[in-house]
Amino acid sequence: MLKTRLKNKKLSGLKTVVLLLLLSVLLSVLFMPSAPKVDAAENVYNTYGMGPDGRLTRTQAAYDPSKLITVNANKPEDFFVDGERIYISDTLNKAVKVIDFDGRELNNFGLKLEENVLVSDGTFVQPTGIYIRENTLYVADKLGEKVLLMDKNTGAVLKTITRPTHPLFGAQTPFKPSKVVVDTAKNIYLTGEGCPNGVIHINNEGEFQGYLGVNKTPVTFMNLLQSIFFSKDQQSQLLSKTPPSPTNLALDNQNLLYTLTAGSSENSIKKLNTAGTEIRGINSNYAWAMDIDSSLNIYVVESNGMISILDANGWLLFAFGGKDIFDRFGMLKSPSSIRVLENKNILVLDKDLGGIMVYTPTPFFLKAHKATTLSQAGYFMEAEDLWKDILKDNSNLIVGYSTLARANMKRQNYTEALAQFKKAEDFYAYSDALWQVRNEWIQNNSLWMILAVVGLVVVVVALKLVNKYTMVLKPVTGFFGRIKKQKLVSQLLYSGYFFRHPLLAIEQMKYKNKLTMLPAIILFAIYLLVTVGSIFFQGYLWVGNVYNVNIFMNVVMEILPLLLIVVCNYFVSSVTDGEGKFKHVFIAMAYCLLPMIVTIPIFTILTNIFTYNEMIILDAIFVISKIIWVLLMLVSVAGVHGYGFKGIVKNVLLTLFCLAMVVLFAFIIYILFMQQFNFFAALFGEAFV
Amino acid sequence: MKKITIFKICAISTLAFFIGLVAVLASINPTSVLSKEYTSSSNSYTLSNSNSDNYQLELDSKSLAFRVKEKVSGKVVMESGNILPDSENYDNGLNKTWEQFAQSAVTVYYTNEKVYTPLTGFESVEIEVEEISKGFQARINIDDIQLRFTLKIELVGDSVEVSIPFSSINEKRPDRNPLLEIAVYPFINTTKGVQEGAYDSYIFVPDGSGAIIDTTKKTSAKNNYSARVYGDDYGVVGNAGIKVNGDYRPAKIQLYPVFGMVSSGSGYMGDIVAGEEYASILAYASGIVTDYNFVYSKFTYREKYYQPIDNAGNTVSTNQKDMNKTDVKVRYSFLTGKDATYSGMANKYREKLQQANVLKTAVKNDVPIKADFLMADSYENTFGRTVVPVTSATFALDALDNLKSGGVKALSSGIIGYSSGGKTGAAPNHSKIGGKTGTSEEYKKLFGYSGGSVYPVANYTLVDNGVSSYSKRDLVLSMGKEFVEFPDYDNSHIYFDAMQVLNPAASKKYLSKDLEEFKSKYGINGIQIKGLDILLSSFNDEKFIRSESKKSIDDMINGIDIKLSAENAPSYLWDKVKEFTASPLSGSNYIIALESVPFLQMVTGKYIDHFSPYINLDYNNESDIVKMVDYNVNLSYILTEKNSYELVMTPSSRVFSSEFSLWGERIKATYARVEPVLSKVRGSAFIKREKLAEGVFKNTYENGAVILVNYTNTDYSLNGNTVKALNFALGGNNG
What we know:
- The structure holds 2 protein chains of 2 kinds.
- By secondary structure, chain A is an alpha+beta fold.
- Chain A contains 18 helices and 28 strands.
- Chain A has a 6-stranded antiparallel sheet with strand order 2-1-25-24-23-22, with no helix packed on it.
C-alpha cells in the first residue's frame, strides 16, 4: 500500500505553474468526451482515499475498468499513446507494434516475413522503452545498447544513439537504456540499467550532457559499523555501495522530469527541477511506473497492481485495484507501464494479462480532480463549493476540509478554519489559523487581562498590608502554616531545597534521616501522573488527534527505566565502594524529578497555546528541563555515594553497562519464555480443542 | 513443505485433466467411466420406451451417452456426447483424457493411496443398463477401485433427469481409493469453437445476479469458471482455504444451482434438484484448455481440507474421511426457439419453483424503498470503547415520516446498531435495545411505525472477534479443528478485521431468544437478517455437515413467524423471504463471464422485493439508477442523523455519506423518477430481456408492460418511443 507523506506540506512555488495551466485543464474537464462505459457493473476492487489518522478510507469508485485491449505481444514493457494509435514495445518479440483502441494491429516495426512467419529483422534486440515527440518515435533498446529515433509513421530509422564516448559518462558505466522520455526541446532522458549516476541526459544532437537525479546511497547502521571497523581489504570485498539507479521516468508538460526507483521505499518517486535536483520526494514501497497528467497529478501503478493517484504535492487522492489472482476484470497481474490520457482515462499495460486495461474516470473522480486542480492553484474560494459537494458524497476525504478551511481563512473565519484544519490534519495551516485565533483573542481580551493582573496585584498587596496591621488573615495563614508543618508535606516541600542544594540535602538525608520513603514514592507517583496525563492534554499541534492511548504501556515505559536506573546504580555502587544505601539512591532519584514535575504541566499548557512559530520555546523548555534533571541526578549520585569526579564517571559508565546487560538478559528470558508458551499452547490445542 | 506443494496441485484438480500430466502429480485421478472397447463411432443408441408427449430419449449403452429427439420433427434437442472422433480429415482437438472426459457420462475423481499413477481410463468397467419406467438405469462397477454406483437417466416432461442415489454407492476400498468427486455429463449440447454469426449464443452461470459467457466472441480469459453452489465450505476446508485478498471485493456467491447453454435458438437449462450444497458449477469457453464451449456440474463426496500442524500456520492437506451422504439429481430442461435465452431459462426455473411451491404469493403493495438507519457504533479508546451515537430513535421516526409525506409511497426500514454499545460487538445478542440513541419506549414506537415496516437488523452468523457475549462452543470449528474466521468486508480498512462464525445450533439459539424478546417487548412485525448466505459445516461436539447446516438454517428460518428480510438469501430460503436486501446487481466480474444479467431478479422479482445495495455508498452514478430499473430492484439507502464524519474512527467508517439532511431530498427525487416506471411492473413476472443495441435493453413483463433502458450516452428510439441517454422509459404494449 502506498504511503505518501510529503516533505513539505505547504502549497508552494508550484502554484504559479499550475495557475498557468488551469484554464486549459478546466476546459478539458468540461468538454471531456463521454466515457464509453456501457454497463454499470460493480467493480471488483475497493477504492480508497486518504482518511484521518493516516489511514486509508473507502470511497466511491474513482475509476471503472471499461475495457481490456488485447495485445498480441510477448512481455511488452512499455507503450505510448499517440492520438488514436497505441505504440507498444513488444519486448521479447523484438518489435514495436502499432495498434488502435480495439486492439487491431495497424503496423509493426522491426519484423520481416520469413516463410510466412514474422521474425525479427534485427532492428531491435530488446526494446523496453518507447516515447513519441512530434513525428519521431524513440525506442530504448536495452540489450541492443542503443536508442533508435524512427519515423513514427514509416518506422524508418532516422538516427541511432549508442554509448556516449564523453569522459564524464564514465569508463566503466554500462549503457543499457531501459526507459526514454523526450522533452519539447527534444532533449532525451534515459534510465540505464546498472547506471548509478542517475538519469542520462542526451541533447537533441545526440550528445551526452550529463547525469540528473542521482539516488543517494542508503546509509544503514550496518554500513556505518562496517566503514568504521572493517579494514580496506574487507571493505573491498563487500558489495559496492552504489546507489540504485532509477528504473522509470516521466515528464510533465512543464518539461520537468520525474524519476521512479522501484524497490526503494524512501523517495522512490522524485520530481526534479530543470537543474536536475530533487524538489519533491514521495515514498512508495511498490511503485513501478508512473505518468503525469496536465494538472501535474501523478498516476502511479505499483507492482502489486494497485493504481494510486497523487496530487502535485504528492498527497494521495485515490488508490484502487490490486493483484489479479482469481481472473477478475479490473485487476492487474504484472503491470509494466501506465499512461493517462487527456480525457483522464488511465491505460495500464500488463505483461501477463496480455493487453492494456483501460480505466475510465467516474463523475465523482472528475469532480474531485477539478476541485484538486483549483485548490492546488490557490483558488480556494472557487474550489470551496466543489469540495462541499464532494464531502456531501464522502465526508471522510479529509483533504477536502483543508480547502474549506483555507477559504474560511480568506474570509477571516478563523475559528471555523481551525476546526476544519483539524479535520484535514493540516498541521502547518492549523498552526497559522491558531495564530490568528489567538491573536484575535488577545486583541479582544487584552484590556481585561491587564485589568485582571493589575487587580490581582492590588488585591494581594492590599491584603498583605491589611494583614500586617489587623491580622485579619490569621486563620488562613495559620491553616497553611499548620499544613506546612505536617511531616509529609514538609518533606515533599523539601524537594525545593533539594533542587537548590542537592548535596546539602543529601547530607541531611544520609545523616539526619530527614527524608523518608513515603514522600519519595509520592513524588514518583506525581511524576507518573503528570507524564501520562500530559498525553491527554497536550495541544493538537504537538500530538495530533489522540484516539487510543495504551496507558499501561506508558506507565511501564516511564517507571521501568527509572527503577532500573535506581537498582543498577545501587548494585554498581555497592561493589565499587559506594556509600549509599538502596533507600538513599531511591529517595535521591525521586527528589531529582522535581524539575520534570514542574515543567511538564507548564509545557503541556503551552502546547495548547503556542503555534509552530513559538515551538522553539517549547523545545528549549523540554531540553533544558531534561538537562537539569540529568545534572541533578549526577550530583545526587556523587552525594549519595560520596564520589569525586572520577568516581562519578566510572559509576555512570558502569551503571549504563549494567542497564544494557539487564535489558539483554530480559530480552533473552522473554524469547525463551515465549517459546515455552507457544509449545504449551500448541500442546494444549492439540490435546483439548 | 513438500506436502503442501503437492496439495496445491490437488486443490486445482478440477482442472486436473487440463494437461494429462497434471494428473501424474496430483493425488486425484479423474477418470471417465468408459469401457475399454468403447469407441465413439459406435452410435448404438437404444430407444427408451418411456416417451413423454413430445420427446423421446435414447441411450448408448456403452458410453451411457444420451440424446433426446423431438418426436414430430425428429430433431435432436439435447445430446450428451456429440464429440466426433478423430479421423483422417477431422481433428476433434482433444487429447485422449479430454476425449474420454467429454464422451463419458460421468467422471470419477478418486485418490490413489501414495502412488500417483496416471490413469486415463479404467481397466475394467462393467456397465449394466436396464430400462426403468421413465428411462434407463445403469449399474456401474469400476473394478479398478472397487466402486459401484447406479446412474439413472429419466425423461420427465420436458426435461431429462440424471441422478445418482446415495444408497447405490458402494465403496469397497475407501481407505485406499476414496471417492472424491463425480462430474456429471460435462459436454451436453457442446459447441466447438467461437460461434461466430450465431445469435443468443452463450453459457449461463449463476454468478451473483447471473452472468453469461458469450460464445460468439473469443474470450480473453485464461481460466475457466468454477464455483461452489452456496459458496465454499470453510468449515471443511479451514481458514487456509479462504480466498481473501484485501484489494478485492469478495466474489459473489452462487445463490441458486442453475446453469445452462444456448445457441441460435436451441439449448438447455440445468438445475440441480438434489445434492446442490455439494455441487460446483464449471464452465469453459472455446479457447480455454479446449476448443469447446461447455458447462457442467460436479459433486463433492470428499473434500480436501487443511489440517493445521503448528501455531505458525503451517498446514497439511488431508482428505475428508466420511463421505458426504448426498443424493445427486440434475435436471436438464430443453429450450427451443425463443425460449433458448437466459430469459427462457429464468422463466423455466421460475415455473419449477412455482411447482415446488417455493414461490407463492406475488408482491402487491406500492413500489417501496429501503431506508436503513445506523444508530450508533463505537471505537476503542483508552478506557474501553467510545460509543458514537449518530441517529436517535425519534429522529429516525421523523425522517421516515418526512419521506412518506415527501411522496414515498411504501417504506421499509432496517435499524442497525440499536444496542447500547452500537453496531460493533452487538451480535449475537441483539435484544439489548437502547442506550444513547433512545429509550426502549422510543424504540418501541419506532418499530411500531405505522407508515411502513421497520425492522431490527441482526446477524446470527458473523460475530465480532473478542465479544464476550458468546462462548467458544458457539463457533464453527473446522474439520481441521480451528475456529473459522471470516474477513469483515463491511469494515473500511484495507486489512479486514476477522469475524467469527456461529455454528447453526448457536444461530438458532440466539435468534429464537432475540425473537422472543423483540416480539414481546417491542412488538416487532419483521426482522432483517444478514449472513444467511454463509453455509458452513461445523465439527463441534454437535456435528453439522453441510447438508445438516442447511437443514438447520432452513428450520431456523421456518421458525420465524414474522416478515423476513434477508441479505443475499440463497434459493433454499426463498419460500420464506419477503425482502431480498443487497440484491446482487452483477456477477463477480470474472473475465470469462463479464456480462451480468438479472436472472435472479427475473426468477424471483414477482414474489420477493429486491433492494439494491446502499446507493449512497457505492452506487452514485446515473447509470446505477438505470441499472436498478433494468433489474427491477428497489432503491436502498443507509442514513444517519448526524454527519457521517462522526463515524470516521469506528468500524462503520465505510458509511461515508449518510446524513439525512443531505440525502432526504435526493431520495425523494430519485424515487419520483423511478416509481412511475416500476409501479407498472409491480407483482408481475419479468419474462423477457432483449438487447436492442449495445447498452440498450427492452424488458418485457408478464402483464405486457415494457421498460426500455439505455446505458449509453446517446438517445435511442424504437417505434416512436425514445429513451434518453442514461435513462429509462416505459415502452408501451406495442414497444
